[in-house]
């Protein structure tokens, strides 16, 4: 596991905007983790609301189909059989849509299109050829992994893809350090390796996490210093349960760590937006 380093950026009046396509790539990765019930930066509540929305849309479609069927019942038995066949087909489609591996496959397919849009943008920023090649190779490996329907194999491949995200963000001059993406990556690595009982790699991930966090934490100031205290403590708690090789507690402490990272990242984004509005 190679560490991707990123220096703390100096505050700049000309902070560059991150391309929406790149943000969409990251959001898509988090969505796949959520679909697989893995360590996602998006809360389970948000994932649940998304699933409820999809279910609601399906139920509305089913209700509309039911009303149509009722109106057409007088047109004969043959039409009823046809409607029954359509209803059965619709139910099959609904079940397929609920399959997490199929949902992941659809989202991975979307990732290929998003990456195709991102590449020209980062090439303009002077992205090294190795970075784009490594991302493409990791995306191809992820695509192949989903065919195995092995949840852990897919999530490890997904996290390996996310490992390239910090270097892509580092191409842009912003007031938010790309190091926070490293912190997400190493936190998630420790959780996944613990779940797969690879405690050696989980311990290495914790070591890298602490190193990345120390680099970023030392540069925080103002309100972010207050926000960082919970994350600092949660990382120590996560380290402790990894050392104890307690898989259940790693899952709990890992989720808390990711939630604290999400809160700090949101605070940094709000601070950056506030600075822009003052200008």
Structural write-up:
The protein is mostly helical and 279 residues long. Helices cover 77% and strands 0% of the residues. The protein is built from eleven helices and no strands. It has helices at 20-35, 44-71, 77-98, 100-124, 129-145, 151-162, 165-169, 179-195, 199-217, 223-243, 247-278. The relative contact order is 0.13.
Which features would summarize this protein structure in a list?
globular, 279 residues, mainly alpha
Rg for CA atoms: 22 Å
Low-confidence residue ranges: 1-8, 53-77
**Structural class based on helices, strands and sheet pairing:** mainly alpha
Biggest sheet architecture: none
Enumerate how many helices there are, as a single number.
11
Q: How would you sum up the global shape?
A: globular
Condensed summary:
With 279 residues, the chain is mainly α.
List strands and helices in order, with pairings.
Elements: H1 20-35, H2 44-71, H3 77-98, H4 100-124, H5 129-145, H6 151-162, H7 165-169, H8 179-195, H9 199-217, H10 223-243, H11 247-278
Helix pairs in contact: 1-4, 1-6, 2-3, 4-5, 5-6, 6-8, 8-9, 8-11, 9-10, 10-11
């Amino acid at each position: 596991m190679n560490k991707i380093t990123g220096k703390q950026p100096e505050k700049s009046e000309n902070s560059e905007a991150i391309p929406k396509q790149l943000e969409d790539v990251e959001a898509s990765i988090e969505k796949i983790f959520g679909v697989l019930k893995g360590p996602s930066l998006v809360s389970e509540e948000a994932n649940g609301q998304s699933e409820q929305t999809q279910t609601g849309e399906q139920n509305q479609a089913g209700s509309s189909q039911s009303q149509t069927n009722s109106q057409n019942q007088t047109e004969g038995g043959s039409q009823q059989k046809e409607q029954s066949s359509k209803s059965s087909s619709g139910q099959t489609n609904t079940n397929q849509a609920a399959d997490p591996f199929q949902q992941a496959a659809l989202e991975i397919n979307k990732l290929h299109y998003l990456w195709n849009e991102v590449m020209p943008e980062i090439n303009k920023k002077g992205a090294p050829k190795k970075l784009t090649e490594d991302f493409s190779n990791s995306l191809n490996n992820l695509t192949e992994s989903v065919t195995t329907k092995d949840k852990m194999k897919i999530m490890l491949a997904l996290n390996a893809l996310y490992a390239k995200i910090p270097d892509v963000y580092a191409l842009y001059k912003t007031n938010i350090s790309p190091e926070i993406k490293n912190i997400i990556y190493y936190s998630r690595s420790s959780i996944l390796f613990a779940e797969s009982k690879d405690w050696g790699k989980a311990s290495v991930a914790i070591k890298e996490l602490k190193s990345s966090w120390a680099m970023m934490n030392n540069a925080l100031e103002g309100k972010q210093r207050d926000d960082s205290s919970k994350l600092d403590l949660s990382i120590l708690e996560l380290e402790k349960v990894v050392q104890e090789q307690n898989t259940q507690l790693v899952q709990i402490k890992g989720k808390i760590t990711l939630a604290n990272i999400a809160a700090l990242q949101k605070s940094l984004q709000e601070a950056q937006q506030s600075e822009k509005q003052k200008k």
